[in-house]
Design brief:
Helices cover 40% and strands 8% of the residues. It is built from twelve helices and five strands. Strand 2 and strand 3 form a beta hairpin. With 339 residues, it is of the alpha+beta class. It is elongated, with a radius of gyration of 21 Å.
Amino acid sequence: MGDGWTMRKMWVGAGVAVALGMGFVMLLVVGVYLVAGNVAGGAGGGAKRLAKGSVPAAYQPIVQKWGNLCPAINPALLAAQLYQESGFNPRARSAAAAQGIAQFIPGTWATHGIDGDGDGDRDVWDPADAIPSAASYDCSLASYVKDVPGDPTENMLASYNAGAYAVIKYQGVPPYKETQNYVRVITTLEKSFAAPTGRVDPSEQAAGAIAYAQKKLGTPYLWGGTGTAEQGGRFDCSGLTRAAYESVGIELPRVANDQYNAGPHPGREELLPGDLVFFSDDLTNSRAIRHVGIYVGGGYMIDAPRTGAVIRFDPIDTPDYFGATRVTEDGAKALPTTV
């Protein structure tokens, strides 16, 4: 969440930089409002490539391969399911006896588990079997409801949650709140695992988030800090970004590596003020992200760096720069509270 964040460049003239930065950020804030108010359309869809580092490197080739097993799924959708089910934890176990990275219950695994890696066994705890089994199960469900009107992927996801019989009975996504929410969550999260194929539009809330963070410049860092009165209004890195977006009505998860999935991922050359920027010692795995800040433009962010430091402007172009997220309200709402 930010402790252990080491200074990679000398902080030059902090007082001068902050003074100059305040005016700079105000210009950016106005610019974000103008841009957000004049864009049309949305993020590109239909991507078949996974976003950089969105899936842990050990699983990325499996997800990419098996995510194209049938037309109803794609790698980003399969990744969204795995993240929602287990947070990519191959040892996950639920109170309902669901097991492994894909959270199969024993009865479903007995019927639909496959030997994905061809080593002669079907092991629910082995991602090399469980991920292919999840894709195979998705495609089986899609085949069961292929004659049902509507979107094939949404019908498949509804079948995963409520059973194919319910989808056939209601001729589409059934009127169950849990099922409708499951379909919405997975299809929304899919966008955060897919490499964007076009422009990612800016959030109208970005300027407000920057303005909030700007007011906290100079506040001492606190590990685990969320800005409460008891904590003296202090923050750690993800506590600051969460509070900044909460001030404009968007609730982010508590930790940085979950905040990464709050929307699509613009490239470095596409960054806009308000984007969350992330840092990691493992550039192949978003689950290893350890620091986050709010981009303000010009290659700088506002962040809460580490114990002993204050909230300040820092450069983003460092060897541990991982990537960025353009926060969307729907993306943030879709994130699981625990994974």
